[in-house]
Amino acid sequence: MNIQIFGTKKCNDTKKAERFFKERGIKYQFIDMKEKGMSKGELTSVASSNGGIMNMIDPDAKDKDAVALLQYIADEDKLEKLLENQQIIKTPVVRNGKQSTLGYQPDVWKKWE
């Protein structure tokens, strides 16, 4: 398994995801989205395995303007806007190769083992 956890240090769900993998002795790489976001390729891969870009957006994100903007711009522009505004992505984003999840989903991660 090659686990990557994208999240922020303040996010409780990200902390719970880290604890989940630590408790099972599974090595993972933590990427702080405040310091270094996802690449275009990573974002595209996560979006395709989770039903599209709009499913990646956290409706409760602090930046309400960015959330609203993504709902109204053309589909071909959404990826670029999300790359610029990664603070509105649901966290944690947990990747295992081509598989990925949004939010805290231990039931899915157990199936990866």
UniProtKB/TrEMBL annotation:
The family annotation for this protein states: Belongs to the ArsC family.
Taxonomy-wise, where does this protein's organism fall, top ranks first? Bacteria, Bacillati, Bacillota, Clostridia, Lachnospirales
| Organism in which the protein naturally occurs | Butyrivibrio proteoclasticus
The protein's name in its UniProt record: Arsenate reductase, glutaredoxin family
What Gene3D superfamilies does this protein map onto?
A: Glutaredoxin (3.40.30.10)
InterPro entries in the cross-refs: Arsenate_reductase-like (IPR006660), Thioredoxin-like_sf (IPR036249)
The UniProt entry, under PROSITE patterns, shows: ARSC (PS51353)
Q: Which residues form the signal peptide?
A: none
